[in-house]
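Appendix B, record 7
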Amino acid sequence: MTSSFEALLPTTERALLHRVATAQTEGRTPSLVGAVARDGRLLWEGGRSCVDGHVPDADTQYRIGSITKPFTAVLVMRLRDEGLLDLNDPLEKHLPGTGVGEVTVAQLLGHSAGLAAESPAPWWERTPGSLRPELADVLGERPLLHPVGRRHHYSNTGYTLLGSLVEAVRGVSWEEALKAEILQPLGLTRTTVQPVAPHAGGWAVHPWADVMLPEPTEDLGLMAPAGQLWSTAADLCRFALFLAEGDERVLGPETLREMRTPAVAPEAGDWDSGYGLGLQLVRRGGRTFVGHSGSLPGFLAGLWVGVEDGVAAVVLANATSGPVPGAVATDLVRIVAEAEPRIPQPWRPLPEIDPALLELTGPWYWGTYAYGLRITGGGGVELVPLRGPGRASRFRAQGDGTWIGLDGYYAGETLRVVRREDDSVSHLDLGSFVFTREPYEAGDAVPGGVDADGWRGL
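Structure tokens (predicted):
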């Protein structure tokens, strides 16, 4: 089954369906659905099923497991953006009495708090949350396994703490905050805490025989912020595009960019993947993907977006093991991005320009390194090397005549214009680095001064 919401080429649609069909067959999963989105709309959906006449579509719910974590992370980042907490705050400041109060909010978001991966037995994914009524039951007697902040160690219990943090600071349940602050603004009407028909049932497929066993579906209780949600391919595609582009009703683009930045170094030998603030990061086939994988008994899920390509893909399956939805989803992104690359928007001039800002454009020199400064819109600027290697960065206007670095070496650094007494521009100061209009321009701007005899030959 396929349907097109924008004109994809028939060859592209066939390639997408072939990838989904192959994943369902080779992964031996009862059903599997995939969807692709770009430019705010669903481009394609395709499903396969072992039961004729029951092919899932992009509106069929599946359990999404740990794809719940980015939703919880967005709630936490909203609290930060509202000034209700700081990412460097210790947990104890907002959620006292946990026994691990020294870990910070940022460490919990990026899985570097040193917490155990799972709660104590019995396995929380196949047992009711009522067995763990208190945070002490989730954390157990030995909640910290590693030095705090030193390494990435994936922790489901850490996201339980973050869900409780949201409740403590916001004053409503995690579920209420989720509905009001993410699901309703983004129109994710088919993303729910409990399943709502039409939804798939969860199955285990025998590893050595083509037979199946139903998996239990439990309410996870306190562990819900780590993996409770049910959703559809269509809803998750919409959420994936939000993670790439932002939405001021929920989180702005700068905060999403922060969440997509690696929080800690990856494990040794695993330099093609990392973790930001609630988001997994992978590098495959020369492309960088942002998103998350998910699994619970009976279900597998993958949500990935190629930010540079502007293409998102979601793959959902109802089997405990078998297909790898994350790999299939990144393949769907690649198929569309390579076969039908996004057509850029027409170039248009800026609606207005500040003459003083225009005066700053053009070549600048840090010593003998040549850079170009250009205006990027909204009063922002970009500094790029004109030849050879160098430190390129984009800067956002601060509203006080300075700019703040957004990426690269100068991320977080301040760029300011230094003027002479007659108000003419002397130089640019970027984190103490001096950029002049000429290489080693004579005057008092260059640290250490400039040789009085000037440039010379051999």
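Remarks on this record: Residues 1-5 have pLDDT under 50 and may be disordered. The two ends are 75 Å apart (CA to CA).
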